Amino acid sequence: MPQIPTADLSEGMVFSEPVYVEGDNLLVPPRVPLHQKDIDRLVRWEVEAVETEGVVLTEEDLKRERESSVLGTQDNALEDFYSERLERIAAIFRRVANGEEVEQEEVDAIGGELLQQVISDRNAAVALIFSQPRTDNVLAIRSLNSTLIALVVGLGLKLNSHRLMQLATGSLMHDVGMVQVPAEILAKTDKLSDEELAKIRTHTLLGYQYLSKNMRYPEDIAVMALQHHEKWDGSGYPRHLKGEEIKVSARIITIADAYLAMVKDRPYRSSMIGYTAVKAILGDNGSHFDPKILKGFLGSIGIFPVGSIVQLNDSSVGRVVSPNGDAPLRPRLELLVAADGTRLESPQPLDLVERQKLFIAKAVDPREYAES
């Protein structure tokens, strides 16, 4: 495999193929910018060269890819991408349940593909969780959606490429211990007994053991399975860890899981449900979630998630197309209905940060908009 001297690397470099260190140790996935921390780490490790089959992509190359990418512009292609990864994840969990071996490379490949998609179009990735129908693959769809949300938040928090790849892998497999919980307990609809609840709570340790012993993942990845039910105030399990005793990656998965738990089990999840879920998370008051992670979540997902229909103070109606970072109450919209009630023939872009006199008066159920 062709080598590139470490001395020739610079921050911001983007490669068309994965970059490896000493064989099969992934340094950075394709189309993920190289950070100075990655280069500094190579220097500390005295690594003289890295290996890749790819080439360095220019800004112009990346722009052409974004413009031609079907994943970012065609709903059907994006849904196919989602469905295909969902089936691969479901197959992995079936093999775990059957006692068959699962290779790191299989999970890492899916994680890398999801990371690429989130980097390419994070808003479309978030919108996907509201457009997918209910499925029997509960564990797989929860793992996939959790990974999408976690990666969007991780990007918003500016995690480096190495930690983003770890987050992708850990998110995908954080609930793998559920495979070993008796199916009759998971299927139970009435109140669980203390003994049944205790068995469910063992899934964090079972998942940690599977990732560390069976799959030989490093501690930084396996610990996400162990800690994703710990709470910021120490009320979680299994070890009642508190605050920064909990790994950052696990804190991200905790908030992603909480958000998804509030939008699950809807035949087609309305973006109105997403708005309600964000409101509920905002009411946490620092008990379950790290306030810094919560701020990153709001900056990345927004109080009004992508796809939300909102009415402005002048009675116009728009659809949220992307959050506005540090101004979660003022997202970017496409205007659908003018202030006089006229439906526009084509949506008009509207950035509420630039239009300070306008603000969102309320969220609107998309079904009400469709019927009006």
Low-pLDDT regions: 67-74, 265-269
Our estimate of the beta-strand percent is: 5-15%
Tell me the number of helical segments per DSSP (H or I, 4 or more residues long).
16
Q: How many strands appear in the DSSP assignment?
A: 9
CATH class of the largest domain: Mainly Alpha
Shape: globular
What is the CATH H-level superfamily of the largest domain?
Answer: Hypothetical protein af1432
The mean pLDDT is 85
Order of H and E elements:
EEEHEHHHHHHHHHHHHHHEEEEEH
Q: Report on the biggest sheet.
A: 5 strands, antiparallel
Order of strands, main sheet, comes to 8-7-6-5-9
Tally of distinct domains: 3
Helical content, roughly?
A: 40-55%
CATH-assigned fold name of the largest domain: Hypothetical protein af1432
Cα-atom radius of gyration: 22 Å
Class inferred from helices and paired strands: alpha+beta
Named at the architecture level, the CATH assignment of the largest domain is: Orthogonal Bundle
Describe the structure.
There is one protein chain. With 372 residues, the protein is of the alpha+beta class. It folds into three domains: 3-63, no CATH class; 74-301, Hypothetical protein af1432 (Orthogonal Bundle), CATH 1.10.3210; 309-371, no CATH class. The protein contains 16 helices and nine strands. The chain has helices at residues 36-44, 59-68, 70-73, 75-97, 104-120, 122-131, 138-156, 161-173, 183-186, 194-201, 203-214, 219-227, 248-263, 271-282, 291-301, 366-371, and strands at residues 3-5, 19-21, 25-28, 49-52, 309-312, 317-322, 332-337, 343-351, 360-364. The strands form two sheets. A five-stranded antiparallel sheet has the order 8-7-6-5-9. A four-stranded antiparallel sheet has the order 1-4-2-3. A hairpin with a 4-residue loop joins β5 and β6. α7 runs antiparallel to α8 (161-173), α7 (138-156) packs across α13 and α7 crosses α15.
